Amino acid sequence: MKRGILFAVTMAATVSVSATASAQDAEELAKDFKCDTVRFAQPPWTGVSIKTETAAWMLKKLGYEVENTTASLAVSYKAMAGDDVDTMLSQWFPSARSMFRPFGIQGKLDIVSPNLTGGTYTLAVPDYVYEAGVKSIEDLDEYKDRFGGQIYGIDHGSTGNDTVKSLIKDDYAGLGDWELTPSSEAGMLSALANHTQDEEWIVHLAWAPHPMNINHDIKYLEGAAEYWGPNKGEVIVQTVTREGYAWACPNVGQFLDNYDWTVDEQSLAMEYVQNQEMEALAAGKRMIRENPEMLDRWFDRSGIYQTGGITTLNGEKAAKPIIAKAVKE
């Protein structure tokens, strides 16, 4: 009996010392991170620009220094793995899986949480092409001459372009002799507009959320699920950080964990930018003013990294009232 009591007391003391040591170790490790500065990477995509610039503006209002670097997805991954960037909000899964995987295996990057669910990313055609019989990716090669053997992509280094390259390399459904025409988001949209004006045939990268789904009558193609994922390329957009960042900087980490947009919210904000010529940050602020409940999601929730809501950098004030006031100025 005495041995049991002695063992229990010894174990309790050991656990207490270990917990204290672990807490001290964590604080020492956190010193390697400069938590008063948040460095974003931002691929040049409209939706990502809105989310990133809105997040950066809010963090500045909370007392943080913020840096925002525009770079391709591939460059952004390398920058985070090299500790030159802290986070990005633009990992589209499953299309980015192969690009992310080496960094995941090496433990260089952390996936924090989804910032958007229920999106779509695959190939699409105008509705008149769809009605003519092109309803799946497997149908494309039958009409190669009508398409000119071209698939219109976006910027170099994008996961969508890489997926199209894989389709061509693997000669999927006879696409081995097709060509990818890389461009940019704006360039692809211009090509779509030019082709649909005269009902010419075009197949192009498409995704939701995006105003192209409002501005153009397009249909997403079935098929190639092993490349795009099931359900016509259903996607999750994830927030990624360099290794350990959210744990070392828990106030920012919890904000990043909370920070999400719905498909409808992001689509509307993108419509403000592309159709009403608003700047990305102005569109983000307008969304907050018209939907103040977004701030409840972003700032009131506790989570993995921190108990209690998000605060200013110095921890003295709650974040939500500050942003709610600033967005009206």
From TrEMBL:
Q: Does the keyword Signal feature in the UniProt annotation?
A: yes
GO CC aspect terms = ATP-binding cassette (ABC) transporter complex
NADP in keyword set: no
**Segments forming domain ABC-type glycine betaine transport system substrate-binding:** 36-283
Show the stretches that span the lipid bilayer: none
Q: Which residues form a coiled coil?
A: none
* Name of the featured protein: Glycine betaine/proline transport system substrate-binding protein
